[in-house]
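I'd like us to work through together how a protein chain folds, taking it slowly. We need material for that, and I hope you will provide a protein of your own picking. Go ahead whenever you are ready, and we will take it from there:
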Amino acid sequence: MWLTGDDIEYAFFYACMLAPVAAFVAVLIISLMRVVRQDRRHQQTQCPDCGYRLQGLPPGTIHCPECGYVLWRGR
């Protein structure tokens, strides 16, 4: 099937309309994956930033010993 001049204009128009939507959806999916990964790490007692295992650290540890991420902020 060959595209005529009008078909090419419509295809270009729809491509220009869909490109920003596709980019937004991609950014949204990547952000959601990061949140899910951080939540899973938190549930598994890992640092949400670097994934370092926090089991065995003394009670009251505030910073991750690997990356320095603040694990707990007091009031």
Q: What stands out?
A: DSSP finds one helix and no strands in the chain. The first helix runs from residue 5 to 43. The CA atoms of residues 41 and 51 lie 6 Å apart.
